[in-house]
Amino acid sequence: MQKISNKATQKDWLTPEDVEQEFGIKINSQANMRSKKKIPYSKIGNFIYYSRQKLYKWFEDHHQEVIS
Questions:
Q1: What contacts 39, CB < 8 A, 6 or more positions away?
Q2: Longest dimension (CA), the chain
Q3: What integer pLDDT is reported at residue 49 of this predicted model?
C-alpha cells in the first residue's frame, strides 16, 4: 500500500479502478465484498465510490497482528 505524502494530490473519493490500482484489490473482489457488505462504499446512481478515509479506517479495523 503506497501512501502519497502530498495531501493535495490525493483524491478523497476513489472509483473501483482507483482502489484496484492503489491498493491492489481486484474489481471483482470489490464487487463481491460490496454484495456481502464487507467494505464501505457509496453508490450514486450506477456509480460506485469509496471514501479514502473510510478505506483507511476499514484497513485498520481489519488489521491482523502477525505472531512469530
A1: 30, 33, 50, 55, 58
A2: 46
A3: 98
